[in-house]
Design goal:
Strand content: 5-15%
CATH class: Alpha Beta
Structural class: alpha+beta
Helix content: 25-40%
Bound molecules: zinc ion
CATH topology: L-fuculose-1-phosphate Aldolase
Number of helices: 6
Strand order of the largest sheet: 4-3-2-1-5-8-7-6
Number of domains: 1
Oligomer: single chain
Number of strands: 8
CATH superfamily: Class II aldolase/adducin N-terminal domain
Order of helices and strands: HEEEEHEHEHEEHH
Radius of gyration: 17 Å
Length: about 220
Amino acid sequence: MLTEVTLAICESIVTAAQMLSEQGLSPGTSGNVSSRYKNGMLITPSGVDYAALTPDTLVFVDQNGQYQHDALKPSSEWQFHLAIYQHRQDINAVVHTHSEAATALACTGRGIPAFHYMVAIGGGENIRCAPYATFGTETLAHKALEALEGRMACLLANHGVIACGENLRAAARLANEVEVLSAQYSRALGIGDVQILDTQEMQTVLAKFKGYGQTL
Ligand SMILES: [Zn+2]
């Protein structure tokens, strides 16, 4: 039986997951969503279609990676979600997708440089791409954490995207933003001679975002 508070968090996770699905960011059953909870997290289950998600299908995983659910297992990609909560106190929600443009870009091993000032929305002057590691492994979690240093989003080579936030809404919106930026950058690469903004300009943009309190 879910308490009222737990139920509210679970409902937010379901809403965020279904929003990603409606936006076409999580093809098939790919992608997973989690929220920090107690000494661990609540995360979408493995093998359940987003359309069939309900609050009681979410799985609690504690700080040691132990989970308990009558019928369901957590997403097979729970490792990097938990690692992020353990190492980043500024993050309370994590969204992972295999969205089309960002994943295509990640399959070239490229991150997203400062080709557009909006790249700063990820928290820095670029959005890095973590080197490839097998899904669901501690190695991938480690590489993702490195790519996320000082950032709220990263790509995962030959895999997809991680977008984080101080809440689920922010994380889901950032996932969408990374997809848009990836599509734009890929298109610019196709034209050629992409101009990259320099560090000084990106620092100016980052300061402006901060000054305006721009959050996602
Ligand atoms: Zn994945």
